[in-house]
Design brief:
Layout lengths: L1 H19 L1 E9 L4 E8 L1 E7 L4 E9 L4 E7 L3 E8 L9 E7 L3 E8 L2 E4 L17
Parallel strand pairs: 2-6, 2-8, 3-7, 3-9
Antiparallel strand pairs: 1-4, 4-7, 5-6
């Protein structure tokens, strides 16, 4: 029984260490159409979802947060989000981005080895043939 208790404590410690290695950030920008979201991300799971408010809300979760470089900005054209992994130390983490999009927003995506999920779409999307090829 003592051994089981020791294993349980070790598992709890590992879970705590994992949680410490996860960095969460939340960003919010007020926007009025026509604006754009420019998203440049690598090795991440991205979830884009529309909502009815005139703002972009991005929640970013980074495993191994110390291995990432995040940059955001806003100007008259729109909002920019860049998430890149740092060389060597960044190879251990993967990012998750959950972004709420206002109506009338234009999207520009530059993705590398990402998984993209888009909810409640209307319209046409066209991808060039090389979008599925490895760089």
């Amino acid at each position: 029984m003592a051994r089981l208790g020791g294993l349980w404590r070790a598992l709890n410690l590992l879970g705590s260490a994992r949680d410490l290695a996860v960095e969460r950030r939340r960003y919010e920008w007020a926007v009025q159409p026509p604006k754009s979201l420019f998203l440049a991300v690598e090795q991440s799971d991205i979830h884009l979802k529309p909502h009815d408010e005139a703002r972009i809300v991005a929640t970013i979760e980074l495993r191994g947060g110390f291995g990432w470089q995040i940059a955001t900005d806003q100007d008259e054209a729109g909002v920019y989000i860049i998430a890149r992994r740092k060389a060597i130390v960044g190879s251990i983490g993967r990012g998750k981005l959950h972004i709420l999009l206002p109506p009338g927003l234009r999207l520009s995506l530059a993705l590398a080895h990402c998984r993209l999920r888009m909810d409640d779409l209307n319209g046409e999307i066209e991808f060039p043939p090389d979008v599925y090829e490895s760089p």
